[in-house]
């Protein structure tokens, strides 16, 4: 099969997705900052007779991404697929809002994905084949309370991938945009379950299926997608009323 360059492979959905893709026969270039976690992932994949290499990289550092792509191609051959899963957010509070926080979240989610695309796209264009996959979020559908940075950054990721999807199709390169709802990536008995939250294993099984089918767009779970889509067409006053007070609380300084 092919070679997949997957970021955010040290934990959560990226790690689980890397294992699913390896089981489909993909050779995996597993990328993240925490190398020891990548090393254990590579061992786990090898035990299942799969092939993977661990590559330490901060996706916000463009030079590091370019060097990592070169190293991955030296060890595994030309890369057929990018799965840009590295990402995440920070809660935003009106009392502590800074432009620097917004930039930081954009640098990881948008900049990190764009750095990987810039490094991989010329080779794909030259070969006339390839697959770009990005993990955005249902949070991209609209602004959520306490998520000014994350909702904005994921909306940017979604729109960037949709633009590229249209532009790259005639060039033989597929684009898949994935928008998960809430996924439980860190087991925590204490934390309250979020609406329609999925376990990481179930979520990544669905994501793997969408990737292998080269779907253009995959958002899940359906009830949350529907709720988010309805949120786009109701009056803004109703949207605000429904979501008021639903955001995270700023912890008082003690
Ligand atoms: N969990 C959810 O409910 C949910 C819902 C919708 C979308 N998502 C999206 O799904 C993706 C995975 O989320 P998750 O919940 O699985 O999060 P997670 O467990 O926190 O994993 C995030 C991954 O991103 C990597 N990462 C973070 N900063 C990085 C950097 N600068 N350079 C390279 N790698 C970096 C982390 O690895 P290192 O720390 O080792 O670098 C880690 O492997 C994210 O894009 C997230 O926004 C999550």
Structural account:
The chain has 254 residues and is of the alpha/beta class. The protein has a single domain (3-243), classed as NAD(P)-binding Rossmann-like Domain (Rossmann fold). Helix content is 48%, strand content 17%. The protein is built from eight helices and nine strands. The strands form two sheets. The protein has a seven-stranded parallel β-sheet, with helices on both faces. It has a two-stranded parallel sheet with strand order 7-8. Helix 4 (99-127) runs parallel beside helix 5 (148-168). The longest helix has 29 residues, at 99-127. The protein is globular. The structure holds NADP nicotinamide-adenine-dinucleotide phosphate. NADP nicotinamide-adenine-dinucleotide phosphate binds at residues 7-14, 32-34, 58-60, 85-88, 108, 112, 135, 137, 180, 182-183, 185. NADP nicotinamide-adenine-dinucleotide phosphate is lined by residues 7-14, 32-34, 58-60, 85-88, 108, 112, 135, 137, 180, 182-183, 185.
Indicate the radius of gyration in whole angstroms: 18 Å
The strands making up the biggest β-sheet line up spatially as 3-2-1-4-5-6-9
Instruction: Give start-end ranges of low-pLDDT stretches.
Output: none
Which fold name fills CATH's third level, the topology? Rossmann fold
Number of helical segments with 4 or more residues: 8
Q: Tell me the β content.
A: 15-25%
Considering the chains and any ligands shown, give keywords for the structure:
254 residues, 17% strand, binds NADP nicotinamide-adenine-dinucleotide phosphate, 8 helices, two-stranded parallel ribbon, Rossmann fold
